[in-house]
TrEMBL record:
This is Glycosyltransferase family 4 protein. Belongs to the glycosyltransferase group 1 family. Glycosyltransferase 4 subfamily. InterPro entries: Glyco_trans_1, Glyco_trans_4-like_N. It comes from the Bacteria.
Length: 363
């Protein structure tokens, strides 16, 4: 039986960790044994533990956690996988690559962000990997432009399938967050980090509140900007209209009660929260940045605006707030798009094809 070790360093169960869960569950259904290595006592570990995999929890402390190299080497020696699949930055991408090379394993690295790396980094870093899986065509193009040999790159887009939950009604969502029943509710679902563009939406709030008097905003997620964003909300006297709602494990139940998902990011590999919103029939307003246009088709399941453009963002949100028919049509088209082009089965088969390239008959 083929055995794959996966390394995911995400503490919280954000988009990347969720993709690992989809992948290992799909691989297990195909008779493949999976060992998942993730941070000790993390939400990711708790969610992965629900799947038919071997879970190994270890300390992970980022790029400077040099002992991680030896922890991973020890796990590789004990588990004896046929292939190593690295899913994260912040430690595993380099230290995991070195550990895998030490054991002579084929190594696959999933690249999830769309930033360019210097030629010096590219020249040495990507020698560690036999294949690099880009989760969007945009990232595949960035890798090529950065000097990664095209023969190493495979594009396997992220996927999504909605969880089998009973969604909250519109009224119940509003009651949960103490909002008026007639509130027009929009949300950003993203880590609280600068590139996700929360500040752009805050910049648009004066115009939005003028044009949509019943507007309320929820920020779902955690991150380093939490205090800064709360201070901005307080300074702009937006506390009655903007709530930092934190990371919510019950997000799948909440999404269908939203009126719009907003994603004003100015750098994004693809955006799993966008797939999640579309799978739940929520229309989207997002930036035309990175891989976002692969997940949000302008005029199909959402509206795209230039990144950093406060006026364009406000105009798009306002137009959809006043057009229920169009907003609902975009949401319905999003469900169809996810079913047609972002199936978990296609993502699992795409990764499995990469494994087979490297392992031949052993896979």
């Amino acid at each position: 039986m083929l055995k794959v070790m996966h390394v995911e360093a995400g503490e919280n169960f954000y988009g990347g960790a969720r993709q690992v869960a989809f992948l290992v569950d799909g691989l297990a259904r195909r008779g493949i044994a999976n060992v998942v290595v993730c941070p000790r006592r993390s939400l990711t570990a708790r969610r992965i533990a629900e799947l038919p995999v071997t879970l190994r929890e270890i300390p992970m402390a980022g790029d400077l956690d040099l002992p991680l190299l030896f922890r991973l080497r020890r796990l590789l020696r004990d588990e004896k996988p046929d292939l190593l699949h690295l899913h994260s930055r912040r430690g595993p991408e380099i230290l995991g690559g070195l550990a895998g090379r030490w054991h002579g394993l084929p190594i696959v690295y999933s690249r999830r962000n769309d930033h360019y790396e210097s030629p010096a980094i590219t020249r040495y870093k990507y020698r560690l990997y036999d294949r690099v899986v880009a989760i969007s065509q945009c990232i595949g193009d960035v890798l090529k432009d950065s000097g990664v040999p095209p023969a190493k790159i495979r594009v396997v887009r992220s996927a999504f399938t909605p969880e089998a939950v009973t969604p909250l009604t519109r009224d119940a969502l509003r009651d949960t967050f103490g909002l008026p029943r007639d509130a027009f509710v929009v949300a950003i679902v993203a880590q609280l980090i600068r590139r996700k563009g929360h500040a752009v939406l805050l910049d648009a709030m004066p115009r939005l509140l003028r044009d949509i008097p019943n507007l309320h905003v929820l920020f779902f997620g955690k991150g380093g900007l939490q205090d800064e964003l709360q201070q901005r909300v307080d300074a702009d006297q937006l506390g009655e209209r903007v709530k930092l709602a934190g990371y919510r494990e019950d997000l799948p139940q909440l999404l269908e009660g939203l009126d719009l998902l907003i994603h004003p990011a100015f750098a994004e590999g693809l955006g799993v929260s966008l797939l999640q919103a579309s799978a739940n029939g929520v229309a989207i307003v997002a930036s035309r940045a990175g891989g976002i246009p692969e997940a949000v088709r302008d005029g199909v399941n959402g509206v795209l605006v230039p990144p950093h453009d406060v006026d364009a963002l406000a105009e798009a949100i306002t137009a959809l707030a006043h057009d229920d028919v169009r907003r609902q049509a975009l949401g319905a088209a999003g469900r169809r798009l996810i079913a047609d082009e972002f199936s978990v089965d296609a993502m699992v088969e795409g990764n499995l094809a990469v494994y087979r390239e490297l392992l031949g008959d052993a896979a």
